[in-house]
Amino acid sequence: MGWGQVGQHRKHGQKGGRKVGRHKHLWSYVLRYEPNYFGKTGFKTPQSIRGKPNTINISQLDQLAHKLTQQKQLTKTKGRKPIVIDLTALGYQKLLATGKLTKPITVKVNSYSKNAAKKIQEAGGQILTEKQTRKKTEEKPEETDKTETETPKD
Length: 154
What we know:
Layout (H helix, E strand, L loop, with lengths): L13 E2 L2 E2 L7 H7 L21 E3 H13 L12 E4 L7 E3 L8 E4 L2 E2 L1 H9 L3 E3 L1 H9 L16
Parallel strand pairs: 3-5, 4-6, 5-7, 6-8
Antiparallel strand pairs: 1-2
């Protein structure tokens, strides 16, 4: 065939995009220099499908509360009662802890970080999740005392 002795041009063929001999006489090369040559690498979900939660930091929350009170969308109450902000209605899914909170705020949000909850509680506010608000609306009114019940005596 014109290639002289056995073994000449042995490594130069192509098999479907793979180099020849990777599972046989070049196996030590694969192990040393290309350990990820064989095998599947997995499927990565595209960014368009994978949704990122819309987040807000505590510093932005403080500014938002100030802005909404100036626009008279939130009503200030006398005393030191916390302002109630529904972040789920505003399009936010998660509350993060960057920044400082200057006033007590009650926040309704789906998820939050531990540090954010700690900072809000230190400022005198609280966080309500969707589960907590559902429980409050579904609770039954308290029944009257049943300490003394009339039972028929035999």
